[in-house]
């Protein structure tokens, strides 16, 4: 990553990462950050919360996840906890396909296919296609997929059924055939947990995912600064972004 990336450096300074922690953090996120699809989400094409770009939302989530993970390891002798995977989950959790605010293409016919319920499924599909190396190890794949799927907890996520993929109104439907079979199986299993009709309400089974979800709540609360940005989470319409 370039040292002169002012926006990323700004986040690192806000959270007062030491030089050593900055180096560790940047090493974890670098392969994802440099990807063209991630860079596209650093632009104004992808506003996420208000006028915060999706890329910067993800970066801030990843920084807070890193710091929360360090705090967790200070007080827990958890040999199974992987700070790299926790940060990786943060970097992948919102890699949905198209901008969702003020975008007619993001609309759906069915209520539970809306962006808020659908985007964790899209993020897993995109991430497994764009970064297949991260999903090669089955145990890593379980933690990553489960963490992405349930990062909105206590809000629900759409249940994934491969037999019903044609009615899920996914905006990256064309990538499904490229998703590894073991990743699809994990998606099916993890969205069955806490299943109520077409939605799943469950926290991640893994501490890496739980910490990332906590970080996401903290960052989102910081970034949503007005009523229009808050109501956009339900309506998809944000008047403050018009003419930006």
Can you give a write-up of this model?
By secondary structure, the protein is mainly alpha-helical. It is built from 10 helices and 5 strands. The chain has helices at 6-14, 19-33, 36-40, 54-75, 83-92, 115-130, 138-149, 181-192, 207-223, 227-235, and strands at 47-49, 52-53, 157-158, 195-196, 199-200. A hairpin with a 2-residue loop joins β1 (47-49) and β2 (52-53). The longest helix has 22 residues, at 54-75. It starts with 5 loop residues before the first helix and ends in a 9-residue tail after the last helix.
Task: Supply database-style keywords.
mainly alpha; 244 residues; two-stranded antiparallel sheet; globular; single chain; 3-stranded antiparallel sheet
In short:
This protein is mainly α and 244 residues long. The protein has ten helices and five strands, in the order αααββααααβαββαα.
Distance between the termini: 28 Å
**Structure class:** mainly alpha
The shape is globular
Unreliable residue runs: none
Portion of residues within helices: 40-55%
> Which sequence of strands runs across the widest sheet?
3-5-4
Please report the total strand number as a whole number: 5
Helix count equals 10
Radius of gyration: 17 Å
Mean pLDDT: 91
- Into which percentage range does the β-strand content fall? under 5%
H/E topology pattern = HHHEEHHHHEHEEHH
Largest sheet: 3 strands, antiparallel
């Amino acid at each position: 990553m370039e040292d002169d990336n002012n926006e990323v450096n700004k986040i690192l300074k806000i959270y007062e990462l030491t030089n050593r922690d900055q180096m560790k953090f940047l090493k974890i996120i670098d392969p994802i950050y440099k990807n063209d699809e991630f860079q596209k989400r650093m632009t104004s094409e992808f506003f996420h919360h208000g006028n915060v770009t999706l890329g910067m939302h993800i970066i801030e989530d990843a920084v807070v996840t890193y710091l929360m993970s360090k705090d967790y390891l200070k007080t827990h002798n958890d040999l199974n906890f992987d700070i790299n995977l926790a940060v990786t989950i943060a970097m992948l959790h919102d890699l949905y396909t198209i901008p969702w605010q003020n975008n007619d293409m993001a609309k759906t016919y069915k209520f539970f296919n809306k962006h808020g319920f659908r985007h964790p499924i899209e993020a897993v599909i995109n991430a497994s296609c764009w970064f297949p190396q991260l999903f090669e190890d089955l145990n890593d794949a379980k933690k990553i997929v489960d963490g992405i799927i349930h990062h909105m907890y206590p809000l629900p996520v759409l249940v994934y059924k491969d037999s019903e993929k044609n009615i899920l109104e996914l905006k990256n439907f064309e990538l499904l055939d490229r998703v590894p079979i073991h990743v699809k199986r994990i998606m099916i299993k993890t969205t069955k947990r806490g299943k109520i009709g077409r939605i799943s309400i469950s926290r991640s089974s893994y501490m890496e995912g739980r910490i990332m979800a906590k970080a996401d709540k903290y960052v989102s609360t910081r970034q949503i600064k007005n009523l229009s940005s808050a109501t956009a989470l339900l309506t998809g319409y944000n008047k403050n972004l018009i003419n930006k």
